[in-house]
Design goal:
Elements lengths: L1 H10 L10 H22 L3 E10 L4 E12 L3 E3 L5 H7 L2 H20 L8 E5 L2 H4 L4 H11 L7 E6 L7 H12 L4 E7 L6 H4 L6 E4 L1 H5 L5 H16 L3 E5 L4 H9 L4 E3 L9 H13 L1
Parallel strand pairs: 2-4, 4-5, 5-6, 6-7, 7-8, 8-9
Antiparallel strand pairs: 1-2, 1-9, 2-3
Helix pairs in contact: 1-2, 4-6, 6-7
Bound molecules: ligand C2E and magnesium ion (MG) (3 copies).
One magnesium ion binds next to loops.
Protein name: Diguanylate cyclase
């Protein structure tokens, strides 16, 4: 545990004396315990993918975003904000991310055989460390091949911040995967600092308008202006765009009036287990 403690002490930006601060020691112990628990959970596959539906304004189902949940034996369903940050700091995100990718590809392989689901895309979140691994491209290719995935149905979600360094290397990796037909979406768009100039270099397919701008779009003129700007950017770069965090019919209508026809949010459904997602798709088709 000592090296985690050192790491935490360093991270807090204090001198080594703070190492003996009892409160800090407690935090260190907690983190170490949680990290061990997370490592065990990965070894024992205590995770499940939930699926959040993505809809077109016409009522047609576009696909889903896969969102990981930790099925904790005592605590029940644990949300990603409680373990993804720790997984990223500790490096455990590499094995967790690999599990997520594989689980998503297994499912996409199954969808291919199902007329109800075969046209749908599945978006998978990829963290910075995962994407920057030397063998990431190979992992994805291998997964797609092994599970018989139609690559055009797989969409990888990246974030702006992870694309800032080693841009040439990132573009090369993206292009290699795009050559197979795999798509890329830029998640949480608008929260980073990417310039249009920079964005134009990236071989993206989609921008995801961050839910922070969608939340108050009906009453906040600034957010409204930001969303309109994002949409104008996406259109000028000939990218798809989807709004996330759409909770009300009113928000949807405002978005639609700006030309945004792709939505994800609680208005349609929260992220749900596979069976429930399939039921939602069935209901949408019957409507
Ligand atoms: P994200 O990729 O931006 O995912 C969208 C988050 O917004 C999800 O939270 C979703 O449940 C939530 N959301 C969707 N619609 C609404 C809405 O209408 N209202 C509100 N209030 N929230 C909405 P979730 O599932 O808790 O995931 C949080 C974050 O954790 C994700 O943000 C993503 O960054 C990360 N994450 C989740 N699964 C994975 C994964 O498999 N790998 C990696 N690397 N990160 C993941
Ligand atoms: Mg996402
Ligand atoms: Mg997002
Ligand atoms: Mg996020």
């Amino acid at each position: 545990q000592a090296d985690i403690a050192m790491y935490q002490a360093k991270k807090a930006g204090r001198n080594t004396l703070s190492f003996f601060d009892p409160e800090m020691q407690e935090t260190i112990n907690l983190r170490a315990a949680l990290e061990n628990e997370l490592r065990e959970a990965i070894a024992h596959h205590q995770f499940e993918l939930y699926y959040q539906i993505q809809m077109h304004s016409s009522g047609r189902v576009l696909g889903a975003e896969a969102l990981v949940r930790w099925l904790h034996p005592q605590r029940g369903v644990v949300q990603p904000q409680e373990f993804i940050p720790l997984a990223e700091e500790s490096g455990l995100i590499l094995s967790l991310g690999q599990w997520v990718l594989e689980a998503a590809c297994i499912e996409l392989g199954n969808w291919r055989q199902n007329p109800l689901l075969s046209a749908l895309t599945l978006s998978v979140n990829v963290s910075a460390r995962q994407f920057h691994q030397a063998n990431f491209v190979r992992q994805v290719k291998e997964c797609v091949r092994r599970y018989g995935v139609n690559p055009a149905r797989l969409k990888l979600e990246l974030t702006e911040s992870m694309l800032l360094d080693n841009t040439d290397g990132i573009i090369a990796s993206m292009k290699e995967l795009k050559a197979l037909g795999i798509q890329f979406s830029l998640d949480d768009f608008g929260t980073g600092y990417s310039s249009l100039q920079y964005l134009k270099r990236l071989p993206l397919d989609q921008l995801k308008i961050d839910q922070n701008f969608v939340r108050d779009i009906v009453k906040d003129g600034n957010d409204e202006a930001i969303v309109r700007t994002i949409i104008a950017m996406a259109q000028s770069m000939e990218l798809d765009f989807i709004a996330e965090g759409v909770e009300t019919e009113e928000q949807k209508q405002v978005l639609l009036s700006y030309g945004c026809t792709h939505y994800q949010g609680y208005l349609f459904s929260k992220p749900v287990p596979l069976k429930a997602f399939q039921q939602l798709v069935r209901e949408a088709v019957e409507k």
